[in-house]
Amino acid sequence: MSDSRLRFPAEWEPQSATLIAWPHAGTDWADRLGEVEDTYIALVAAITRFQDVLVCVADDDVEAYARARLASARVDMDRVRFVPAEYDDTWLRDSGPVTLREGGRFRLLDFRFTGWGGKFEASRDDRLVEHLDKVNTFLNSSRQAIDFALEGGAIDTDGAGTLMTTWQCLHERHPEVARDELTRRMAGWLAQDRVLWLDHGYLEGDDTDAHIDTLARFAPDDAIVFQACDDPADSHHAELAAMAGEIAALRTPDGRPYRLFPLPWPKPIVDGGRRLAASYANFLVINGAVLMPAYGDAADAAAADVLARAFPGREIVPVPCRALIWQNGSLHCITMQLPEGLV
Questions:
Q1: Is the pLDDT of residue 47 over 90?
Q2: Which domain of life is it from (predicted)?
Q3: CB atoms within 10 A of CB 184
């Protein structure tokens, strides 16, 4: 593979920073801001042990407040950089840039962000990548605007030309487009040789229409980590068992089955009568570590063991995420990795 080839790096490749947006009273977090801020502080503290964090802040007051909270938590502030930006909410996996490598340069894919198919106001989020590009946040890069709704949480790559996604999400966004055509378009934009589609798998309380990053993720050396459900009485059991069967039937480009790492199933977390979407598959890979969503469940430790086997040589760092799933997402959903050399 020549260095000049356009390529979508895997998340476990070297990174320069993690991009997040600080929650504030003007976001959907307002009602439980204190709890959510604690999660963000734990997240930044964990990331800065290994690499830099780029924090979008809505205004000077938000920046001053975030800076004070992080400093008082003894976060390494030399590894934190703030970028003023307007945003509707903080799900940067879906509104941030999808970054491809092109030799020594980068291509920032700026897909349309529609608030998961028009469920929420998202006009400022949809302009975020353009804004970050205009204020020279990124090095050696060019932005490519693509008039097509696609969220970063809906796709996962092995870095070697294979993309994994779910039919439910892409069909929900683009009901008029056939699967063959969706495959062709995504393979072209994302520089992929092939697209693997999952037809099963969902989480109650998830408003993304089954993003792949809550269900199944690639890991190094032809492995797939996925959320399993071992409770036959649970409403998810049949769908996740069907998804596990689909994943077991997938083959690598040279025809071998993938090495499979099923994640344990946490006990149901219910909030005001509403089941929340707690998934261990929503982990974040950074330099030298995997940050794991922790839910205060007995299965947390078992999930950490699975991730340690799937990502050997990386430290597994739990981050408390019960506050996040109240708004239907978890750890991976609020972050976007920036490849080494981009900032």
A1: yes
A2: Bacteria
A3: 13
Show the domains of the chain with their CATH numbers: 6-339 (3.75.10.10)
**Secondary element (H or E) of residue 46:** helix 33-47
Relative to beta strand 98-102, strand 105-112 is: antiparallel
Say whether pLDDT at 2 is over 50. no
- Total number of residues shown for the chain: 343
Coil, strand or helix: which one is 321? coil
- Whose CA is closest to 310, among 279, 331, 340, 283? 283
Cα-based angle 246, 250, 252 (whole degrees, multiple of 5): 165
> Within a 10 A sphere around the Cβ of 38, how many other Cβ atoms?
14
Q: What is the pLDDT of residues 289-324, one digit of tens each?
A: 999 999 999 999 999 999 999 999 999 999 999 999
pTM of the model: 0.97
Nearest to 83 by CA among 67, 101, 95: 67
CA distance 44 to 253: 37
